[in-house]
Amino acid sequence: MDYHYDNSPRDVQREAFKLQLRAARERRLPISIHTREAEADTLEILEEEWKDSGLGGVIHCFTGTRAFAEAAVELGFLISFSGVVTFRKAEDLRETARSLPVDKLLIETDAPFLAPVPYRGRRNEPAYVIETARALAEIRGTTDEEIGRTTSENFKRLFNVL
Asked: Residue 77: which CATH number?
């Protein structure tokens, strides 16, 4: 659900989102959600279509509010942080990353977009995810190795990877 660019009518986005949730639910699969400037509608639909599914998911490339992150965690979602968490003006995002339970965190590149500092403005590469891990470690007062281990375990738990 992306209301930033509004490339698709919002009612069409909402209906497509519901269909995707239903398909994942039928197949007993976790879901990865992209939501931008659509938090209220995203949560409303998740409450209707996903809440009692027993399945989790990922809020991909999270840049939303702390309230949205907390509500998504309550619904069984993990919150995935990208290079945006390294941006100078992303203090609210860093505060959200600091406040969430560590077992609800993931990191990602969102390549080729949103390269972290010190690569900001360049094409993002998977190798740069270490910068996101370093930032998250600093935010949470731990090491990048620990963040890497924890987020890998979180991913494996969510997607049942052995």
From this structure: 3.20.20.140
Domains identified in the chain, total number: 1
Q: Evaluate whether residue 120 is within a structural domain.
A: yes
CB 36 within 8 A of CB 1: yes
Q: What is the DSSP letter of 26?
A: H
Evaluate whether 144 touches 133 at the Cβ level (below 8 Å): yes
Average pLDDT, the chain: 96
Q: Are 21 and 52 in contact (CB under 8 A)?
A: no
> Taking the CB of residue 38, how many other CB atoms lie within 10 A of it?
22
Single-letter amino acid, residue 98: R
pTM of the shown model = 0.96
Residue 19 in any domain: the answer is yes
Does 95 map to a domain? yes
Cβ(49)–Cβ(22) under 8 Å?
yes
Give the residue numbers spanning the domain of 76: 10-158
Q: Which amino acid is at 120?
A: R
Asked if residue 5 belongs to a domain, the reply is no
For residue 6, is pLDDT > 90? no
Cβ 41 vs Cβ 1: under 8 Å: yes
Name the one residue in this structure whose structure tokens are 């360049």. 122
